[in-house]
Structure formats: C-alpha cells, structure tokens
Amino acid sequence: MTAPRHDLPEADAFTRAYWEAAAGGRLLLRRCGACGRAHHYPREFCPHCWSEDVTWETASGLATLYTWSVVHRNDLPPFRDRTPYVAAVVDLAEGPRMMTELVGADRDRLRAGARLRVAFRDGVPVFRPGDG
Ligand SMILES: [Zn+2]
To answer: Which residue range or ranges hold the ChsH2 rubredoxin-like zinc ribbon domain (predicted)?
Structure first.
C-alpha cells in the first residue's frame, strides 16, 4: 500500500486545470477581468473585488523571496523524508503571494528579496534561486 501524501491536494473539476498545467511545467494564476488583479491560490471569484470574471493565465514563474523558515520536523509523508527543508512565502512577479518550498538554495545565505524562479517537483511548483 502506498502511504498517503500530504503535499498533493486532490484535484476537483475546478483545480484540475491548475494541476494539469503544473504537471506540464507551467504555473497558472487567476486574473480578474473586472479589477485586473491576479491571485493565487486559484479561486472561482476574485478575492479583491468578488467578481466572477476570472480567467487562467500562465505566470512568468519569476518571484522574489518574501519570508521563509527551515522546517526540521514534519511527520507527514513525504515531508518527513525531506527535512530539513525551507518553507517559503514568495511574491510572484504578477503580484500574488504564494506559499511554497524553496529548493536548491544555501539556507545560510537566504535573504529577503532574493530572485527566484519556479521549478516543478513531481508536478508540484517549488522555487529555486535564479532569474535566468
Ligand atoms: Zn477583481
């Protein structure tokens, strides 16, 4: 029996587009046609103005590091095999703030505002240092 994974949500009809894009290496955002703002995680209405005139768009994948913390213990699979890891909040270039994981970074040299680029691990968006 395969152990349950706690890093992969069950996709419903609405979020399936997001996870299918992620599996193909694209990060999707939702953009509001009424106020023009983007948001993440995906919702069926705009969290800024409540409009339902919201559509998918592909994000640039560029972000800056807002804050982070090093997680030394997490008993939920698969996280327990990854500790210590860097849980991060990043500001996407399009504006939304996103909870994610930072990979491939020197944990002792992280700084707020560091440039990041999206990467995908098992179809889940994570971020790594770099803007190239
Ligand atoms: Zn809006």
So the answer is: 19-54
Model confidence pLDDT, tens digit, residues 13-33: 888 999 999 999 999 999 999
In a shared domain, residues 83 and 27: no
Share of the chain above pLDDT 90, in %: 77
Distance 45 CA to ligand 1 centre (A): 8
Kindly state whether residues 100 and 79 are assigned to the same domain. Answer: yes
- Residue 38 C-alpha to ligand 1 middle, in angstroms? 8
Q: What is the pLDDT of residues 60-89, one digit of tens each?
A: 999 999 999 999 999 988 888 889 999 999
The CB density around residue 78, as the number of other CB atoms within 10 Å, is: 14
Per the structure, the complete domain to which residue 43 belongs is given by: 16-58
Q: CA quadruple 112, 116, 119, 125: dihedral positive or negative?
A: positive
pTM of the model as a whole: 0.88
CATH classification of the domain holding 67: 2.40.50
If you measure from the C-alpha of residue 74 to the centroid of ligand 1, how many angstroms do you get, rounded to a whole number? 36
